[in-house]
Design brief:
617 residues; mainly alpha; Sodium/glucose cotransporter
């Protein structure tokens, strides 16, 4: 693609502004670990919500979701259940409040509040650190692959002229862009990340609206209908997916088979079951958890996650739909002509068609902002586990705040280097994403569900559940491929890995003693979870007759059910709006209004009140 000088200038100004602002505010984030990783727990909930949304608005995920919408049509709205997107609803309704009451720095440090500091707790602590580092490295490889594929199509400069190999132009672009973003993310920590992400999200939102409007102006509903198979416009499905691209774009059928999504009812059932467990487990030890812990109180933690749903889904899906229908209208000849079509490159391919100078530069700046937001949030989350949870706790407990910040920067560079290495060895964004959400997260779930809801679960059970789950995530998908003779969607291996992890949890728990009652009582009093806490609840009520246990389980699940429908409305509304399908738009608006009213009375009005002395001024 040949960039107009105006577009090049816009991109250069964007990069320069982002890096300079990130470096300018970095002093606020370099005082100690609390300021470096959580911004001193002083930032407003709405800024953290925008930052969290910006971190999720990543370029790799956007490229993947454009591919999904093109190939799967409106049935693609269910595929993000893989992550699962509705974990934000569980966090919004109750889990963010529980997590924030723990008042810790990282997910591994949270383990102390639940299991104490004995041998079992230490092993549990180390297991979650190992998981967090593996997960962050995987996310960095995911970001690396996405930005490289995007940049090599969009940006005009070539370095080696190679299209494959370690020194391909794709990989060189990825290394350059990761390095530029690292300048401020590593130096300034959380404050630099949040401030730059708010700016980036404003660019992203403007970009999304422009793309959606361009698509609505250039592509009529009739143009879309002419190039899609029957059933593309409907989100509903049967036993099978119900889409046949034969004669329109035959290679799309091959993509569906390669993804392993032909029997969509089975896939949907696995996604939803896994999604509920993943949501009950709480946030992963990454930037999402970091934003919750950085809020000022439990009420703001829940409001922050609710705000993420409001600000994220409409602009993101407006962009995704706009790019998709532009691709359907103008890029079908190129897609049909490809020997091995890479649908993940559809996003940058679309931007080479019918977008005027100036607008291209703004769009590219917005999409690069999507990458930088997600990458900065990911790299900022990793070193907390290595420095706070390994070095400070086990190696040098008396080290200074200055040492902590310096080592955090070193740890960021090490993790970044490992992430780049794995990115160089990766071929498809989809492969990385499916392994992360289908296999690795399966090994994480049972230990992290049981830690919230069952008093008898202990540190040994947590450690063995995590270790068996992580080993299973690395071994079971490979065994499945060897057994069937071809690649397998890792989601199909999810039940096996989940059962292995559950066996590890139960054996570790019942072959060792329960945790100390003092630790369990302190945890139950401060976090106030519902679940199987009867023996501990009775002890707490005996010592503290005025203690009020959490009896909101039914209300929380009712709110979650309404909230998932509410979130789906926020997802589908911009899709049908850009498609100009007004009957669907009207129906969705009615459902959105009703669910919003229900949540106002059943969730927002019942959020935990902040004592006047703690209320933000």
């Amino acid at each position: 693609m040949t960039l107009h000088s105006l577009d090049t200038a816009i991109i250069a100004v964007y990069f320069l502004t982002t890096v300079l602002i990130g470096l300018w505010v970095s002093r606020r984030g370099a005082k100690d670990l609390d300021s470096y990783f959580l911004g001193g727990k002083s930032m407003p909930w709405y800024l953290l919500g925008i930052s969290d949304a910006s971190g999720m608005f990543d370029i790799s995920g956007t490229m993947l979701m454009v591919y999904w919408l093109l190939v799967y049509g409106l049935k693609s709205i269910w595929l993000p259940f893989l992550w699962p997107v509705f974990n934000q609803i569980f966090l919004m309704m109750f889990l963010s409040g529980w997590l924030r009451r723990s008042n810790v720095l990282t997910g591994a440090e949270w383990i102390q509040t639940r299991f104490g500091r004995g041998t079992g707790a230490n092993l549990a602590h180390l297991s979650v650190v190992i998981f967090a580092v593996i997960q962050v490295v995987g996310m960095l490889a995911y970001a690396f692959k996405g930005i490289g594929k995007f940049a090599v199509v969009i940006l005009p400069w070539r370095f080696t002229g190679a299209t494959e190999g370690l020194l391909s132009d794709e990989n060189i672009y990825a290394i350059i862009l990761l390095s530029l973003t690292s300048l401020y993310a590593i130096k300034g920590g959380m404050v630099s990340v949040v401030i730059t992400e708010v700016m980036q999200f404003c660019i992203l939102t403007l970009t999304a609206i422009i793309i959606g409007c361009i698509a609505m102006y250039k592509v009529s509903p009739e143009m879309v209908q002419a190039v899609i198979p029957a059933g593309w416009m409907s989100p509903f499905f049967g036993w099978k997916l119900g889409l046949d691209w034969t004669g329109i774009l035959d290679k799309a059928n091959d993509a569906i088979r390669q993804d392993g999504n032909e029997f969509f009812t089975i896939i949907f059932g696995l996604m939803f079951f896994k999604g509920v467990l993943a949501s009950l487990a709480g946030p992963l030890p990454n930037y999402d958890m970091q934003r919750v812990l950085a809020t000022r109180n439990p009420r703001e933690a829940c409001m922050m996650n609710g705000f993420v749903n409001v600000v994220l889904y409409f602009p993101r899906y407006m962009m995704i739909t706009g790019l998709t229908i532009l691709g359907l209208a103008f890029c079908m000849p190129q897609l049909r002509a490809m020997d091995k079509p890479d649908f993940e490159k559809l996003l940058p391919l679309v931007l080479t068609q019918y977008v005027p100078p100036g607008v291209v530069g703004l769009l590219l700046a917005g999409l690069l902002a999507a990458f930088m937001s997600n990458f900065a949030a990911t790299i900022n989350a990793a070193p907390a586990y290595l420095v706070n949870d390994i070095y400070k706790r086990f190696i040098n407990p008396h080290s200074s705040a200055r040492q902590h910040v310096f080592l955090s920067r070193v740890a960021s560079l090490v993790v970044l280097s490992v992430g780049i290495l794995f990115g160089l060895l990766t071929h498809r964004i989809t492969d990385v994403m499916l392994w992360l959400v289908g296999a690795l997260y399966a090994g994480y779930l049972m230990a992290n569900v049981l830690k919230w809801y069952w008093w008898r679960f202990n540190g040994y059970g947590y450690c063995w559940g995590m270790v068996v789950g992580m080993v299973g995530a690395m071994v079971v998908p490979k065994l499945a491929e060897l057994m069937v003779g071809h690649s397998v969607n890792p989601l199909y291996t999810f039940p096996v890995i989940l059962v292995l992890s559950l066996v590890g949890c139960l054996l570790g728990t019942f072959l060792s003693q329960p945790e100390d009652e003092v630790i369990l009582k302190d945890f139950y009093r401060s976090v106030r979870p519902w679940g199987l806490w009867g023996p501990i609840r009775r002890l707490v009520e005996k010592e503290h007759p005025d203690f009020q246990p959490n009896r909101n389980c039914k209300r929380d699940f009712a709110n979650v059910s309404v909230g998932i429908v509410w979130q789906l409305c926020l997802t589908t509304l911009p899709v049908y709006l850009v498609l100009r399908n007004w009957s669907w738009v009207g129906s969705i608006l009615v459902v959105l209004a009703v669910t919003t009213a229900i949540l106002k009375f059943s969730w927002y009005d019942k959020l935990e009140r902040v004592p006047a002395a703690q209320a933000p001024k």
